[in-house]
Amino acid sequence: MVQEDLLPHFYNHLHRHNETQITWIIKGEGTLIAGTCMQRFKSGDIYIFGANQPHILKSDPVYFEKNSQLEVQALTLFVDLRGPFGKILDIPEMLNVKKFMEATRMGLQVPAAHHKPIIEKMLMVKDARNGTRLAYFIQLLQTLSYIKKCKTLSNTHTEYAISESEGLRMNDIYQYTMSHYTENITLKQIAGVAHLTPQAFCRYFKKHTLKTYITFLNEVRINEACKKIVSENFDSLASVAYQTGFSNAVTFNRVFKKITGQPPKKFLYEYLQKID
To answer: Which residues contact 227 (CB under 8 A, 6 or more apart)?
Structure first.
């Protein structure tokens, strides 16, 4: 199935489906959550979400502002491997493709160096019909299967681990966090959003994300900090710390380095070097 999106913002809720999903983000920026992964997404990115992998492409807040003229655009291909197409993968000539599709269960990001041929083949699938579309789609999967350095998004496969009701609860947690990350979110507050006691919430969140809530909250804050630094929308790095919910610059520097692997000053320096 081929889906073309031209919307004010991407679908704004955590969701999952039986189909494996290949998405080329033609236009749009925001935060991606896929399984245990959280990172920025931007125009040009290509992602593959595994069957039943919970995910959300959360557009930046500016897309939701009143009278916003911004739009997002994406081309997405869906395939249900439980249907007839799954049987095609059983023939010997499709062994590499079958191995690749098994690797998509945890989600993948296609390296930028491989974007051009993948986009060309996705457009061929979009424009074709009937058997020709199927042939082009197989070509696309074969091309993807030859890429050796796709980035794995999640560190665990969560198929069927989250029920529909739990998915709604996790969505509420994510939405609240991404809307209130600048505030001092207490454990009692976020547990209340999930309708759990603080103790039960800690166990629940760790079970479904393999990380503590404070780790997730810090990831959201550092993600936003990186966006501010890259957009050069700040007066000083200390101001970035306070604007993203940190009470002091020391904690900000420590958490930033832990999550990104480098202190904010080095991150800024390397970014400025790239654009010079």
So the answer is: 40, 60
